[in-house]
Amino acid sequence: MRPVPMERDALKLHLPEREAQTQEDVNSRILRFPSEGADSPPPALTVEALAGDEVQMQQFLTRNYHLLCKKIFMSLDRFYSWLRNEGVFTIHDQQLIEDTYPIKLDKAGHLIDIITYNKGPKGFKAFMEVIEYEFPYVFAHIMGTTPSTPPPEYRGSINLEGPIERRSRAMWDQALVDIQDVTSRLTKEMIQKFKAVAERAQEAEHMTLQSLQQEIVTLKEEKVSLEALAANYLLERDEGCAACHKYQQMKDTSNVKVVELSQQVTQLQRELSRIKSESVTMTT
Q1: How many of the other CB atoms lie within 10 Å of CB of 130?
Q2: Cys bridge to 5: 54, 99, 133, 214, which one at CB 3.0-4.6 A?
């Protein structure tokens, strides 16, 4: 079973309080290479002398903290391998760093913190050996001395590469990290864009469906209204036709009565004329 990683606050119980340092103390930890603007290399130092003085050792690592972090964060496995080989590190120490900090630069800083305050002279020597053999240009810069050749036991413990290969590997590792960062960033951006497009499409589809449904409801209402109007029109047409037919019947009946009355009037006129004729005859 893997040990439970210690929290950062719990680790501070074993390390001096570094957050309370002044800005000058923090700035003093930044050491640049000559190509990056440093005035001159430091005076020659020895690992043995620094390891024999705990205060000087801590000041040395503190002064070069940021430089070391920037140079070693891509090669932490080599430090783990040699420190465990020298009995300085345990698997728990390694898992503590790996499980607590997701960013490699933070892992490198925590490794230096543990070496500075928890592992003593032996841990410092083993750490500086990896710096000397893996990063000779860094070792020469911070120590002011020429690095030595790795011993056979170191070569047997760690698969070493030459300076050119190490530099090439570091460049490729950094390029790989950059590519992974860019790929991750582009992937996240594309996912966000796809989500945004999908959301807009879904909203548009939803709005379109709502609009179509509303239009269908409106058309149905208009259809019902038109059907009602058509029914009323047909009813009025039928009523009008019936009224016209009735009027025609009344007209025909009236015409018949007019003819009959005309005939009666003619007959009465004839009868009146006959009566007048008879009356004249009787008078004479």
Answers
A1: 22
A2: 99
